[in-house]
């Protein structure tokens, strides 16, 4: 019995270096947001005051990629590149490098599976964009 236990321990120790170099990818399904019809309100901020919201509706599928679903509202689409992406079960954070604007940081934080807030803040500390998302209902068709 000692030999088989010793063999098991040696086998586990031999696998430890492999586990250390194997990249771990988070499953989109572990993200803490419910699928369904979401109302997204994006407000651009100038001189500390937020504009009227631009309202967007979109249907989020089960297991959808959180980056393409909940971080797609970033201003200057196509003009900015997201880097240093950090994902947790209820938040996304990233840095923005833009062609025509100062570097910025962005985040989305879920306070429940049906609601989130987020913003983009310039390198100087000024808020540039504010976002809020609310899940309203289940999606009823592909056109939702």
Automatic annotation (TrEMBL):
It comes from the Bacteria. The keyword Signal applies. InterPro entries: DUF3617. It holds the Pfam family DUF3617. Keywords: Signal. Residues 1-26 form the signal peptide. This is DUF3617 family protein. It comes from Luteibacter jiangsuensis. The lineage of its organism: Bacteria, Pseudomonadati, Pseudomonadota, Gammaproteobacteria, Lysobacterales.
